[in-house]
Specification:
64% helix
């Protein structure tokens, strides 16, 4: 598994294909439905996190370094005691 949004998209489409299989019935179908629900919850968190990163980047792009001191996660790691 890779860690890009395009990979997430591929996984979600693959899950849709599994759900569409004609021989999927009973317990197997229920297991795939539960798997799908779990995947959707995780996908929602991943997309929300990506959206937040885009919003932060847009804020810095639109307003320059004026907000950088208020967004330490965009500045990179801080040095501790000169290290």
């Amino acid at each position: 598994m890779k860690n890009r949004i395009t990979d997430l998209n591929d996984h979600l489409f693959a899950q849709m294909e599994r759900l569409a299989e004609d021989d999927l019935t009973g317990e197997k179908l229920e297991a795939e439905v539960q798997r799908t629900e779990a995947m959707v919850k995780i996908a929602d968190m991943i997309v929300d996190n990506a959206r937040l990163g885009i919003q932060a980047a847009t804020l810095v792009a639109n307003h320059g370094d004026r907000f950088r001191k208020d967004l330490p996660m965009l500045s990179g790691p801080k040095e501790i005691d000169g290290k």
